[in-house]
Amino acid sequence: CYELKCDVFKLDEGPATQVVLTRDEGLQYYRTMQTMRRMELKADQLYKQKIIRGFCHLYDGQEACAVGIEASINLSDHLITAYRAHGYTYTRGGTVKEIMAELTGRRGGIAKGKGGSMHMYCKHFYGGNGIVGAQVPLGAGVALACKYQGNNELCVCLYGDGAANQGQIFETYNMAALWKLPVIFICENNRYGMGTSVERAAASTDYFKRGEFIPGLRVDGMDVLCVREATRFAADHCRSGKGPILMELQTYRYHGHSMSDPGVSYRTREEIQEVRSKSDPISMLKDRMLSNNMASVEELKEIDVEVRKEIEDAAQFATTDPEPPLEELCNHIFCDMPSLEVRGTNPWAKLKSVS
């Protein structure tokens, strides 16, 4: 049983403050977070070896957000996020193998090697989106579909503190509130939008209050149980027909904005170290489980070994799987269409598209 702290806005009551964690849940959250962490560290390594190229935004440090959210919604619910998407691709049902192979641009990747780091998708997961804030209106569209179909599903719509000042987000708040859409807007506040701290970017850093006419909550995004309970409360709010709700998760990223940002020019190494030592999501869960005799050190070590092996095997696959052949370049432009000719880089280069 644990005590939770939560700030609320325009709500008469907040999430449960007393929560229960079972041993099985704890072990499951630990394994998932550890897998995400190791996967991102492996991606970092492959990037430095120039095996992964281009954009690559890593999620290490923020694992409790994804795991906590997924623990309180169903896989039949919908989720859309920005470009820091590897973790969510995994929790939504993608495999480490498919994610790693997508990062290296191989055939066995989750988007057949054509999407890369920022564009991974699976069932009920509408991907990483490369344009800052653009996923928010799309998420409201998914929520509109949920309402239209009347299937009691909802859409979780994620964005960062950097996107929180985008105009399209406020336009979306307005429509979602007018139409009472079943959408949970979640701001993953990791304190920096690229290299700009929240204090330098936003006149109000109370992101959970910025929906104005939409109720909001703010919790510790480094604590998987806080995130889980807040999400459970938000999901109940949406499903009971009360319309949209806003959540702010206070979290932190250990890496720079992307792999091309060393991440230490706008913040000190000491700051990163302090977060790691005091509020790392994996360490906090581990300590909690050990101090309550819910698991033994040996058991958790065993999970670590299994996770490491899974990541190594996935990396092995991602570096040996073939790249997609050129003739597949234009496939899947349309869905359910007879094959069509596509012009290449000049009028004479003809390519074929198969749906």
UniProtKB/TrEMBL annotation:
Query: Per UniProt, which keywords does this protein have?
Result: Carbohydrate metabolism, Glucose metabolism, Magnesium, Metal-binding, Mitochondrion, Oxidoreductase, Phosphoprotein, Pyruvate, Thiamine pyrophosphate, Transit peptide
Annotated Pfam families: E1_dh
- Identify the InterPro entries for this entry: DH_E1 (IPR001017), PDH_E1_Alpha_Subunit (IPR050642), Pyrv_DH_E1_asu_subgrp-y (IPR017597), THDP-binding (IPR029061)
The keyword Phosphoprotein appears for this protein: yes
Output a single Gene Ontology CC term carried by this record: mitochondrial matrix
Q: Which GO terms describe its biological process?
A: glucose metabolic process; pyruvate decarboxylation to acetyl-CoA
Q: Which GO terms describe its molecular function?
A: metal ion binding; pyruvate dehydrogenase (acetyl-transferring) activity
Report the protein's function.
The pyruvate dehydrogenase complex catalyzes the overall conversion of pyruvate to acetyl-CoA and CO(2), and thereby links the glycolytic pathway to the tricarboxylic cycle.
Put simply, this protein is called Pyruvate dehydrogenase E1 component subunit alpha
Organism listed in the record: Oreochromis niloticus (Nile tilapia)
